[in-house]
Each structure stands twice: as structure tokens, then as C-alpha cells.
Amino acid sequence: MNLSIDEQVIDVLKQCYDPEIPIDLWSLGLIYHIEIKDTDDVLKNVHIIMSLTTPGCRMGDSMALDIKTKLEATKFVNEAKVEITFEPPWTPEMMTEDARKKLGFTKPSENQVNTSWE
């Protein structure tokens, strides 16, 4: 089965992790934009815009470099550029359903008692 370039890029993103959270960056919903441009018959330039779970996260440059390194190690990427943005701010709702379950972000049932301080 041949994967499209888009699927191949997403597969690489699923191999990149936030060092503080055991979930890949794609499933965390941190990838906001992927742009793929042709450079020749085979190689592509890839531009990724991503966010972080918090603006104070000090691992952003490390995660961006991990994405860049892994993409450029493939046989289909010439150059990868990764930018970090905080617009819009990341929220847990951006995670995949599987990631939310793994991290305990499940929707409360209707019968659950509200225990908030507000």
C-alpha cells in the first residue's frame, strides 16, 4: 500500500513526542498546519506550524527540531521548516479521542456531581 505524501508526513509526526507527555504531537492536536511543496520529481519541502500545550513550555525548540530532523531523514523531504505559534491557544479539546482517553480527559457523565470550586 502506497501512502500519500500527506499520510507519510502525518506518520512522521506520530513518531514525535512531547517529552513531558507520552502522546505523539499529532494526537495531542499540536499540529495546526502542514504545507507540502514540490521541489522536483521526488523531494518535497514541508512547512509545519505547531503549538505547545502551554506558552511556558521550554521544550518547543526541541520538539520542532525533532520534527525537522525526522522529516528530513525521510526519502521524500528535501527541507522541513517548523514554526511555533500560540494562536489559537491549544486546548485539550484539540486532542484525538484516543489521546484524551489515555490522559484521562473524558467527558463527565450527566450523573456526575459538579465538584468545582466555582
Q: Mind explaining what this structure looks like?
A:
There is one protein chain. Helices cover 24% and strands 19% of the residues. It has helices at 5-13, 60-72, 97-102, and strands at 31-38, 44-50, 77-84. It is an alpha+beta fold and 118 residues long. The protein contains three helices and three strands; from the N terminus they run αββαβα. The longest helix has 13 residues, at 60-72. The chain has a domain at 19-100: GMP Synthetase, Chain A, domain 3 (2-Layer Sandwich), CATH 3.30.300.
Q: Numbering strands along the chain, what is their spatial order in the largest sheet?
A: 1-2-3
- Rg for CA atoms: 17 Å
User: Residue share in helices?
Assistant: 10-25%
Global outline: globular
Strand content: 15-25%
CATH architecture of one domain: 2-Layer Sandwich
**Secondary structural class:** alpha+beta
Order of helices and strands: HEEHEH
Low-confidence stretches: 109-118
CATH superfamily of one domain: Fe-S cluster assembly (FSCA)
- CATH topology grouping of one domain: GMP Synthetase, Chain A, domain 3
Mean pLDDT: 88
The major beta sheet can be summarized as: 3 strands, mixed
Query: CATH first level of one domain: which class?
Result: Alpha Beta
Could you give the count of β-strands?
A: 3
Helix count, DSSP H or I runs of 4 or more residues: 3
